Amino acid sequence: MTSTNAVHVLGIGGSLREGSQSERALRIALGGAAEAGVTTELIPGPELVLPFYDTALAERHERAVRLVEAIRRADGIIVVSPGYHGALSGLVKNALDYVEDLRDDDRPYLDGRAVGLAAVAFGWQAAVTTLDQLRTITHALRGWATPLGGSINSAETKFDEAGGASDEKSVRTLRLIGSQVAEFALSRAGHQ
Fold first, then answer.
1. Phi, psi at residue 40, to the nearest 5°?
2. Distance between CA 89 and CA 42 in Å, rounded?
């Protein structure tokens, strides 16, 4: 739990292309969290350009320090990855590898945090397999994957700059994922 009374949800993801479909999906999910009464923060794909994670190196790039500190402060996390060739992007995977830097914290890794997950890919197969991989990684990092995850086929659903999408069901799903993360974090805050 953060040191202040504010409950904070961090969004991580997207692609290198600013305003990508996966980044727009992440923004919708963060909107759902904010509507549930938490503060939110976004670290989009272009800010996730980091050196490959290496446990042997103590020195960290300034972006890596920002990412790790943001995860450390977060009471909940939302991760959205594009699906590339049936898997999550290397950009998002490398960012999640930096969670290892939290191994010695009082709250190691993603312990005690809800993690909302969604995958956006041009086709159902990559969207579903990417979501499955995100769930596996979340469990390995001791996070609580929300009951609802999102697999979004960008061949059928297009996100717009105004914060919506051509498929209202996808928008509702993403908002619910954000809401589930926020509600879990708020619940834990009330029981601390």
1. -130, 160
2. 18
Q: Which two tokens stand for residue 165?
A: 């999408």
User: Which residues touch 78 (CB under 8 Å, ≥6 apart)?
Assistant: 9, 10, 11, 12, 13, 26, 29, 30, 33, 115, 116, 117, 118, 177, 178, 181
Q: For the residues 48-64, what does the mean pLDDT come to?
A: 96
CA diameter of the chain? 46
Query: Other C-beta atoms within 10 Å of 9: how many?
Result: 29
Q: Identify the DSSP state of 51.
A: P
pLDDT digit string, tens, across residues 74-98: 999 999 999 999 999 999 999 999 9
Number of other CB atoms surrounding residue 136 within 10 Å: 11
Token pair recorded at residue 8 = 């904070």
**123-173, pLDDT tens digit by residue?**
999 999 999 999 999 999 999 999 999 999 999 999 999 999 999 999 999
Tokens read off for 173: 């799903």
For the whole model, what pTM was predicted? Answer: 0.95
